[in-house]
Amino acid sequence: xxxxxxxxRIGWFLLxxxxxxxxxxxxxxxxxxxxxxxxxxxxxxxxxxxxGDSWILVTPSVHTRVRDLARVAGAIGPNDxxxxxxxxxxxxxxxxxxxxxxxxxxxxxKVLIMDGGTWDTIQGAPVNGVVTTFNEFLTxxxxxxxxxxxxxxxxxxxxxxxxxxxxxxxxxQACGASTVPCHFxxxxxxxxxxxxxxxxxxxxxxxxxxxxxxxDAIWGVMQQYCIAQ
Length: 229
Known about the structure:
With about 230 residues, the protein is α/β, with parallel strands linked by helices. It has helices at about 5-20, 55, 60-75, 90-105, 120, 125-145, 165-175, 190, 210-225, and strands at about 50, 85, 110-115, 150-155, 180-185. It is built from 9 helices and 5 strands.
């Protein structure tokens, strides 16, 4: 092995150790490059779009951690970044427009990472209306024909976020019936054992630890299903 290649592999290994250490001892599998279980990356970083509301933006770690793990894994380049179109306090209909605006440009979307719907219920919108809008959005995405995968995460049941329990089965069903593969992440599974992940001051958004947990859950799905790997 050439010295430069050896140095490169050592550097990759040190980055991997650093990423694992940042998980509080939890092992995060850093890509499938070594075992060859995923094909070579077919998705550029700027073809991965984050859309949604405050749960994506409250701390940057929700998306920067996924980006950093992807860089370490070699899924994207060391200076590459994903596109963030999320906005605070945003309804499901406005989130759909975040996608439509990006899709209308020259670079088409291949992977969507998103949340959405709980700001609607906070504002008093009916659950069925949220689900109808989400289904319409999934139909639009399928019709455009460029998106290969959708990762949707639903916030947990927090007193200041009404309607989550009612939204869960309906959004999960919509996601499962989507023509474009839609991967549903239920944050209730994480928050049920880590209620401290809710920001103590805001009361309805994740803190830094919670944001990292969301990122790890998203990255796990991306690796399991070879999404943007």
